[in-house]
Amino acid sequence: MAKENNVINREEGHGAQEAPVRAPVEIPQNVMNLHNKGLAALERNNPDIAIDIFLRCVQQIPGFTAARRNLRVTAIARFKASGGINSIAHHLAPLTGLLQKIKVKGLLKSGKLEQALYEGEKLLLVDPLDLGFADIVAQVAVKAGLVEEAVMTLELVRENLPAGNLKVLDKLGRLYFQVKNYRGARDCFAIVQRARPTDAEIRHLLKDSEALATLDSGWTEAADAGDYRKVLANEEEAVKLEQESKVVKTADDADSLIAAAKLKIEAEPNNVNYYLNLTNIFMQQKRYGEAMETIESARKIVGADAELDRRYSNAKIAQFNAEIEELESRGDEAGVIQKTAERDQYVFDDIAERVTRYPNDQHLRCELAMQYFKNDYIDEAIQQFQIAQKNPKDRVVALYHLALCFRKKGLLDLAVSQLEMALEYLPTMNSEKMDVYYMMGEILLEEGKRSEAEKYFKEIYKVDVTYRDVGKHIENIYSQKKKKSIGEGEGEDA
């Protein structure tokens, strides 16, 4: 049996809020095998077969997130290949999918959630980019406790519709708000409100999202003052300031922009965007000490905040690197060694402290795990990677490194199981999948399973003959086969 953990992604600086963690879903081996057949069908460019297989997977195990994502992504790719939103099928979808839509709504109303989920996937196969269909399926998923799947549904629609589609932003913002992802909701509603400034409901939702996002970020001073708008980052203003900070070409340009940024801070001392803009300019000019001082000033306004902590850490590390480069240019080898050790210790201690401050930030957990792994604290790394792999965006990296950890401990069967889980989230051959295949091949060789290892090395070799030592592995495999064939031939002659 394989386990799949499902959790809403919480990312530093992007506003995702932690949702209640769903218990690990047990994926029976027969369903895992079925899913792998779907992936194989994709690799053979048979999307219709893959979709049918993935659909059977989610019918049997509704919480099989990887299969549901692969189903959705494959269906969207097929739909776009046939014309997408410009096709007649897209324009007729509300009519052609009407009966199926009514069926899903009826199942939802009667509380038959698993059936509603399955029929919802069939509805999306009519048109995976129909916003009305996607919204219904998302609400079914929320009711069924599959929050990650609900968010994924609307996010995929947003990604595949033209940028700035107000209808999908409205729907996605409401879903984010419903699942307590207040920063995500705020970002969506801010765009909609600028386009529809007279929409009182959107204005109200935006105000509530801003307030709740502030509270969740720990911006306690803003809460006490009751003036969230003076502290919160205004998206349009932030983008404009960032663009301004990128036009620095000379020292004179920088001095001019720094002076202008400081004047803005004096005029509006509670506007954090101005501090971040000034920090960007200082970072470009490699004035890292002043960048850190500016971030400290922003901290006095907003209190504890993960994004400011991240920026401070980046500035400090950049300062270390600049000092190391200076020592290298002077040929001070002892100084380079000492300063590098100081930097590495700072990185380790800083990430550990930030994990203590933000224990629910799974991306930070991944960074801490990497530090443990780098310093050969394998048991500690395993613990952190196991938490980090709940974050969808770090999942493959975490599973891959868990396999490395188990391999170091000699637990090859556990290493293989982590790699197999990672492959569930890698439907197409890319660099990550080649990494997983390569390690799988090496472990199978260690176990003496040469024929099984051969399959993985061949898959890499078909795509990239220069990848690591895959060429040597292929040569060794065929050399062994040749020797065996010659030996058998000599035995026959004897």
Description:
The protein is mainly α and 494 residues long. The chain folds into four domains: 1-160, Alpha Horseshoe (Serine Threonine Protein Phosphatase 5, Tetratricopeptide repeat), CATH 1.25.40; 162-218, no CATH class; 232-303, Serine Threonine Protein Phosphatase 5, Tetratricopeptide repeat (Alpha Horseshoe), CATH 1.25.40; 429-494, no CATH class. 74% of the residues lie in helices and 2% in strands. It has helices spanning 29-43, 47-60, 65-81, 88-96, 98-109, 113-126, 131-143, 147-160, 166-178, 182-195, 200-216, 220-225, 235-245, 251-267, 272-284, 288-302, 306-329, 333-357, 362-374, 378-388, 395-408, 412-423, 431-446, 450-463, 470-493, and strands at residues 2-6, 22-27. A two-stranded antiparallel ribbon has the order 1-2.
CATH architecture of the largest domain: Alpha Horseshoe
Biggest sheet features: 2 strands, antiparallel
Strand content range: under 5%
CATH third-tier fold name of the largest domain: Serine Threonine Protein Phosphatase 5, Tetratricopeptide repeat
Number of helices: 25
User: What is the CA-atom radius of gyration, in angstroms?
Assistant: 27 Å
**Can you give the helix content as a percent range?**
over 70%
Terminal CA distance reads: 49 Å
- Overall geometry: flat
Order of SSEs: EEHHHHHHHHHHHHHHHHHHHHHHHHH
How many beta-strand runs? Answer: 2
User: How many domain units?
Assistant: 4
Structural class call reads mainly alpha
**pLDDT below 50 for ≥5 consecutive residues: which ranges?**
1-22, 218-233
| CATH class categorisation of the largest domain | Mainly Alpha
The pLDDT mean sits at 83
